[in-house]
User: Fold this.
Amino acid sequence: MTEYTEEEQRIVAYLRESVSCGERYFRAKNIAEAIGLSAKQVGARLPTLAEKSEEVEIEKWGRARSTTWRVTPS
Assistant:
């Protein structure tokens, strides 16, 4: 089982729940607002979570004003 920090656990739990409700695209600032972290905290952890998360697949999807992340169930 993958070891997560407390902040990573919160991010993955939020993404897992959101994906099960049909959402697929996320921005760090929206995740941060929903779980009470800063956008910088979330944005710094998403690339790491993309590599180690077994619950959801996280993929850097696009970059306009801020990076969009595509999340799908594993």
